[in-house]
Amino acid sequence: MAVLNFGGVDENVVTREEFPLEKAREVLKDETIAVIGYGVQGPAQSLNLRDNGFNVIVGQRKGKTWDKAVADGWVPGETLFEIEEACQRATIIEYLLSDAAQIEVWPRIQEYLTPGKALYFSHGFAITYKERTHIVPPSDIDVILVAPKGSGTSLRKLFLQGRGVNSSYAIFQDATGKAWERTIALGIGVGSGYLFETTFKKEVYSDLTGERGTLMGAIQGLLLAQYETLRENGHNPSEAFNETVEELTQSLMPLFSERGMDWMYANCSTTAQRGALDWMVPFHDATKPVFEKLYKEVALGNEAQRSIDSNSQPDYREKLNAELKALHDSEMWRAGAVVRQLRPENS
Question: What is residue 8's predicted lDDT score, i.e. its pLDDT?
Fold first, then answer.
């Protein structure tokens, strides 16, 4: 494990160079990894583990998602099982169901958490908010976490490109004395670029804040506010979308992803530089109180409870689909669909 300095702060990180795939395979050579759930993270993590040569099986309820697993090459009775049987067969259980489904299924899998096994999460939600989820693992198993900092789709796509998504890792409970090696081996196995140390609580606090903030909620709100302002002032949809979204995602994000925001600024016009440096301050001052309120709601558990209450409703999926349809049908994203078709690679 390396200690790297990030802006004056030391952090523990593990890279592929110091913990190569061959070492990960050696650590887990006698383990059976059961990936429970085949929704968001399940397909990517299980397929990456399988392609990397680990002994992995999938546990999933029968239905459309079961059929998707079959289409991906998982064989019923050999590498694809009902959830309980997969848990019984496994020495490491990757619990990758949605947070709401983890609460629902927990009573059915507890008996299979026998001494020496490992219970693996990719989200700190269930353990951090255990008073609300009632998910309390037995004391004689390892409880570990590897959380890829990206969607399952991105994790699989980048893996197939020979790249990786960076992941955080945490150990909540080390009953066997080998929790750390198990955790890092799994992190390398699922395709992490590098792994940085955290805790279950810090992972879920940062994750919930990020999803509601710059990763999803805030960015949609900010983009929509600019798009609406341009449209209200007479700009047509194509101009408003290109100036709000297309230039950001296609031109500028690759620049600051590659070498940082300062480098991106340096590669824009002096007019753009001056305006960006001046206006970043009022945008920061306007949004900082919102982020502070958001983080407080996460820390108090209010965001977790809202998620539990909403996602447990019988009509949750129907309501969610209606909200997503409204987003899809909004003028900004209808304009986006047209603009994407006009990109050179689609011509």
Answer: 75
CATH 3.40.50.720, applies to 2-198: yes
Q: Give, in words, the CATH class of 210-346.
A: mainly alpha
> What pLDDT does residue 232 have?
97
**143-157 burial: b if 16+ Cβ within 10 Å, else e:** bbbbbbbbebeebbe
Identify the bridge partners of residue 168 per DSSP, sorted by sequence position: 147, 196
Q: Which residues of the chain have pLDDT under 50?
A: none
Task: Write out the two tokens for 138.
Answer: 């037995």
Q: Is 134 a catalytic residue?
A: no
Contact assessment for residue 166 and residue 190, using Cβ atoms and an 8 Å cutoff: no
- Whole-angstrom Cα distance, residue 138 to residue 290? 38
Residue 4 to residues 11, 13, 14, 165, 170, Cα–Cα distance (Å): 5, 7, 10, 18, 17
**Token pair of 321 as six digits:** 């689909």
Residue 282: CB atoms within 10 A of its CB come to 9
Could you tell me where the beta strands, DSSP code E, fall in the chain?
2-6, 9-15, 33-36, 56-59, 80-81, 92-95, 118-121, 142-148, 165-173, 192-197
Q: What is the pTM of this model?
A: 0.90
Per the CB < 8 A criterion, the answer to whether 126 and 147 are in contact is no
- Cα–Cα distance for residue pair 230/239, rounded to 1 Å: 9
pLDDT for the residue numbered 40: 86
The Cα 321–Cα 336 span in angstroms is: 20
Tokens representing 167 are 């992941």
Catalytic residue (choose from 123, 235, 284, 328): 123
Q: Please give the Cα distance from 13 to 26 (Å, whole number).
A: 20
Helix axis angle for 331-341 and 217-232, nearest 10°, is 90
- Which residue is listed with tokens 């890829």? 148
**Distance between alpha carbon 6 and the CA centroid of its chain, in Å?**
22
Domain boundaries, the chain: 2-198, 210-346
pLDDT at 312: 85
